[in-house]
């Protein structure tokens, strides 16, 4: 994990392996900041959706029990949202390096869309 001090806060950049392990162990909440359309087409199973366009730091849950890790398609939007969360007063924020593209590239499971039927299905 890479860390960067931003004022009094810390911005963490997690690898796919770090996110996958912590998510599997129930240690983190993954928040997808892509559009609803992107999320519906394919997403990390169990990730919550809070599109960047509608991001409200005060609507985020506290991090006393589970840490928050943001992700998007490539890591650009999730880093912007993480920095916005820091500006809103969060002390420690994380995002997924490389985003959903890196997640898929690492062959992690996700929910995709069956193009023949339009139905969601698990991709492993």
Automatic annotation (TrEMBL):
Top-level taxon of the source organism: Bacteria
UniProt xrefs under InterPro entries: Rhodanese-like_dom (IPR001763), Rhodanese-like_dom_sf (IPR036873)
Gene Ontology molecular function: thiosulfate-cyanide sulfurtransferase activity
Domain Rhodanese per the UniProt entry, residue ranges: 24-112
Protein name: Rhodanese-like domain-containing protein
Record SMART domains: RHOD
Species this chain originates from: Ponticoccus litoralis
Family matches, as Pfam families: Rhodanese (PF00581)
PANTHER family documented for this protein: THIOSULFATE SULFURTRANSFERASE RDL2, MITOCHONDRIAL-RELATED, THIOSULFATE SULFURTRANSFERASE_RHODANESE-LIKE DOMAIN-CONTAINING PROTEIN 3
